[in-house]
Specification:
two-stranded antiparallel ribbon; mainly alpha; about 375 residues
């Protein structure tokens, strides 16, 4: 069985000398990886197509949030192409057939999409945190700064993949049997590397995501109570001003936060089993003799670390009406979509009550224009 890392008992000489495998389990591995790859490829390709249609044909403004979605979709697509696809080919051939150079290239690319997706999610969380919790400071943050944070995520992800080139090599694990294999020369090298990977790829982004979105939810709840959305004075009667003023946090902003919270929740759910199992299998001395580690369940769990990449694009479509409309209009050749969209926008704008010209509403619209414009 080949994995992103040849962890725990997989590095033992007795197992590496055995050039046989469970064909029934191998078929399940291939089926799982094929499903993940196809769903990942289709979903993220559709998101990128919708973004292109929205920008190219409908002439819609490419806002900061769409910039983040673009790079997150690219990261998820790279996960499918650089991680899932090579792993699928590896499971089909059983032993690695690519040679020394391809071994190092594939091992460099496999964690790249996972790192990139984690750090772009972190950048998005930080951007939403400043937008909602510190809106006046956020207005001074330029789009250039947000782009630099995303490009920094790309550079950091590439840097963290460099150790893969050193650790993995095309090695003869038994007479006549060659494999793309990890070699650790220090006694605790394997434990240190797996722990380091778990911290940098999952734990640190996890801490940032939990902190920022917890503060965001608290801020939205507090703002909703202040604006009378949740509790209008704790009475059945409210003034005309309270009933008609806009909330400090716009509906578009809340919808974006809901979308990202679901994305982050799935990120945590899909990464925790893989990271937890690998840490346990590495740090527990008795894990190598456990039926769970050597069984089918552990093998399947080790393939699900990229599951988030095939789920994310469908969340974007579920929450973003513009992406769905752009894609359907293109598929059904609705060339007049942008015109009708502008007409609907003007019509909705004309229906806004005059009371929204209050001081609080002006601040809300200003913050929203800076965030989403």
């Amino acid at each position: 069985m080949s994995q992103d890392f040849n962890f725990s008992s997989l590095t033992s000489s007795s197992e590496s000398a055995d050039d046989a495998r469970d064909e029934y389990l191998a078929r399940w591995e291939i089926a799982v990886l094929t499903s993940i790859f196809l769903i990942t490829l289709l979903g993220n390709a559709l998101v990128l197509l919708a973004l292109y249609i929205r920008r190219r044909y409908q002439r819609r403004k490419f806002t900061r949030m769409y910039f983040f979605i673009l790079h997150l979709s690219v990261a998820d697509l790279l996960t499918g192409l650089l991680d899932v696809l090579p792993q699928l080919a590896w499971d089909i051939t059983f032993r690695f057939q690519g040679g020394a150079v391809l071994c190092k290239l594939i091992k460099f690319g496999q964690p790249f999409g996972l790192y990139l997706s984690s750090y772009i999610l972190t950048v998005i969380a930080m951007d939403r945190y400043y937008a909602i919790c510190h809106p006046f400071s956020y207005c001074r943050i330029t789009s250039r700064r947000s782009k630099m944070m995303v490009y920094g995520a790309w550079a950091l992800a590439a840097t963290l993949c460099v150790p893969q080139i050193v650790i993995f090599s095309y090695t003869e694990i038994s007479p006549g049997v060659w494999e793309c294999w990890a070699t650790f020369y220090l006694k605790y090298g394997e434990r240190a590397y797996i722990t380091w990977y778990s911290v940098t790829q999952f734990l640190l982004p996890f801490i940032v995501l939990v902190y920022t979105y917890t503060r965001i939810c608290v801020s939205i709840w507090t703002s909703s109570k202040m604006s009378g959305v949740v509790d209008l004075n704790k009475s059945n009667k409210a003034s005309f001003f309270q009933r008609n003023r806009d909330p400090l946090i716009s509906k578009a902003m809340i919808n974006t936060v809901k979308q990202m919270i679901i994305v982050v929740s799935l990120y945590i759910i899909t990464n925790t089993p893989f990271i937890g199992c690998e840490l346990w299998a590495t740090w527990d001395p008795k894990a190598s003799t456990s039926s769970f580690v050597t069984g089918a369940a552990f093998t399947i769990l080790s393939l699900l670390n990229s599951l988030t990449s095939c789920v994310n694009p469908w969340i974007y479509f579920a929450f973003n009406k513009e992406l769905r409309s752009a894609l359907t209009s293109f598929l059904y050749r609705k060339k007049d979509y942008s015109l009708t969209y502008d007409i609907d926008a003007r019509r909705n704008a004309s229906d806004v009550p005059s009371s929204t010209s209050s001081f609080i509403s002006r601040i809300s619209r200003l913050a929203s224009s800076k965030i989403f414009g």
